[in-house]
Design a protein that fits this description.
Elements lengths: L8 H12 L4 H5 L6 H21 L11 E2 L5 E2 L7 H19 L3 H10 L7 H20 L10 H18 L5 H16 L3 H29 L7 H20 L4 H31 L1
């Protein structure tokens, strides 16, 4: 009998789960299937059964992420069935992302300190990027997401802070650092006050981060000079976003987070290509 269409997600799961609750996940997974339709049906049944079990245990989170903490302290996501290969790839992606982010902004920092000029580097883009990082890491921590999925962001925030001070210093506006510091600390305190404020900020986070990329692109288009911008930093940023798409699919499955990384990947590729284009143009002029 088909499920009614006027029920919400957990109600669907509960109805289906009540029909197959006596069947173990392994038994459902091993149902002989000779056609694609039956295999898809079995996977959907497994997915909904997992949601039903979480619902009855009172562990469906409002953030849209289904997760369960086992007695051993590990977090399992019942709608994903990891193989040893998948787990190994997940660990590699998390580790490589963390290592990349530890040095991601260093080429840009070294370049600014060497040239002592910020031409082509957008201060407004950096401020928006820093805002997006703070919102994102606060959201991840608030909903108790797995630490490996966001542990690089405190490092990125510290590196962006150093970049901010360098830009203000070379622009002769170092006193403004007090104002920006107060704004960021106050904004972070506001995010932790109410869940709805954090959810609203996270829904705007993609637009905030995308805005920072467009501001950097605009700065490049106006100056037509990327000699003070590190292509290596932007290349590593592109890789880390691509890796985070994979880790999000393999862990939280949060569509809002995934959409952010997809948009960021596309824009990072655009900025990287623009930086390389103007660097090649500068070499030709020389």
């Amino acid at each position: 009998m088909p499920l009614p269409l006027n029920l919400n997600w957990c109600d669907h799961a509960q109805m289906l789960g009540s029909r197959v609750a006596s069947t173990s996940r392994r038994e459902v997974h091993n149902i002989p299937s000779s056609c694609l339709y039956k295999r898809i049906r079995d996977q959907i049944a497994l997915y909904l059964l997992s949601w039903y079990r979480l619902h009855t245990e009172g562990r469906c989170q409002q953030s849209g992420t289904a997760k369960r903490v086992s007695e051993s302290g590990t977090i399992s996501y019942p709608f994903l069935y990891h193989s040893e290969m998948g787990d190994a790839m997940l660990h590699v992606a998390n580790l490589s992302t963390m290592l990349s982010c530890m040095v991601l902004k260093l080429p840009q920092i070294f370049l600014l300190t060497k040239l002592k000029s910020t031409k082509g580097v957008s201060l407004r883009a950096l401020l928006l990027e820093l805002t997006g990082y703070i919102v994102f890491v606060t959201y991840q921590m608030s909903y108790e997401y797995p630490l490996p999925t966001y542990m690089e962001y405190p490092v990125l925030i510290s590196q962006d802070t150093i970049l901010l001070f360098l830009i203000l210093h070379y622009n002769g506006n170092l006193r403004q650092s007090v104002i920006y510091s107060t704004m960021f600390v106050g904004g972070w305190q506001l995010l932790t006050r109410q869940k709805w404020i954090l959810d609203l900020a996270m829904s705007l986070c993609t637009f905030i981060s995308a805005g920072s990329k467009f501001l950097q692109l605009q700065c490049l288009w106006e100056s037509k000079d990327s000699s003070r911008i590190s292509a290596l930093s932007w290349t590593m940023s592109t890789y880390t976003c691509m890796a985070r798409i994979f880790t999000t699919v393999m862990t939280t499955g949060d569509l809002q987070v995934m959409a952010r990384f997809i948009v960021m990947t596309a824009l990072n590729v655009w900025v990287t290509a623009t930086v390389l284009y103007y660097k090649q143009g500068g070499k030709k002029l020389d």
